[in-house]
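@here heads up, posting the sequence + SMILES for the flavin mononucleotide run so it's all in one place. Ping me if the SMILES looks off, I pulled it from an old spreadsheet.
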Amino acid sequence: MSRPLPSVFDQALASAVRAPSPHNTQPWRFVVEHEVIEVWLDRERVLAVADPHGREARLACGAAAFNLQICLRANGLAAVVRLLPDPDEPDLVAVIRLDGNEKASAAERKLADAVFRRHTNRRPLLDKEVPVVARTALKSAALREGGQVEYLDASGRYTPVASLVRQAEALQADDHAFKAEAAFWTHRDSDSPDGVPKIASGPPPHSPGIVSLRGSHENRELPEREYEREPLLGAVLTRDRGPHAEVRAGMAMQRVLLTATAEGLATSFLSQPFETPRTRESLDRLFAGLGQPHTLLRIGYGYPTRLTARRPVKDVLTHRTARDVPAS
Ligand SMILES: Cc1cc2nc3c(=O)[nH]c(=O)nc-3n(C[C@H](O)[C@H](O)[C@H](O)COP(=O)(O)O)c2cc1C
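bot reply: prediction finished. Complex structure tokens:
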């Protein structure tokens, strides 16, 4: 096998850091050793209030691992991904090992391109239906990574889930610790290397909608706007639960998001009900029999918004020459 050029690894790492993460915390570190890239969870960047068990952070790390893999694939390199490979190192989330050369397909190149266009769109979407062909493409994307997408409109879960989103949003709006954490990470200047900048926030809704986006992501300097009436909601599930399933779900989520981007769809997240114990239990019950829900996506057509910044790769990368763990 021909050795990968250093620039391919540079590109792959630049793709990895474009992954989404809760409040753009970027809870990852990467270690490169010969032909291996490791993805580590950075505990310092796990949200202590919203995500005390690091569940959302593992989804983000899974998404970063997917970006690494798809970028290597687009460059004609096969890459084997092992998730949580070492029981003694629970923060070693994924190991990506090169495994020969293999011509990239057009679909893989399309997904790799979408990495640099995908973004969270918190603005109103158009009241335009997502066609069956696009819905099917997102479902297949999740299945390819060992996950599932369940559309709520098809299942009668729409109303109860939308109500849990509103309930959790109300609980969080009354929780000082939650509000302080959200305030720390949001309304940043646009050149902030992490956190959510004001330019990525949406306008306040003119009237309360069937689902509520996060109040902490609202830009109250913008005039009120009417949001779409009933956005398409898709839950990302896996059969299993636990840390391994969370990383797997992160990879599935990212393939879904990139497929959506490639299909011209806008996406955003509704994570509130996963972050308060009571609503989370209710969510688990609603999906009992289908799988473990990990995240909830709002999907539709909208106008692209600006990309948010990331910390430079050099700040999250260690080159290992001897066996050691990354410095935090
Ligand atoms: C697990 C997870 C949960 C998220 N939850 C929310 C959410 O509830 N509301 C929201 O507006 N964005 C949410 N996001 C999106 C992040 O805020 C976003 O990925 C980050 O700010 C980087 O911006 P980008 O996605 O535009 O690149 C979530 C992202 C991840 C990975």
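MO: The chain has eight helices and eleven strands.
MO: One more: Residues 55-74 form the longest helix (20 residues).
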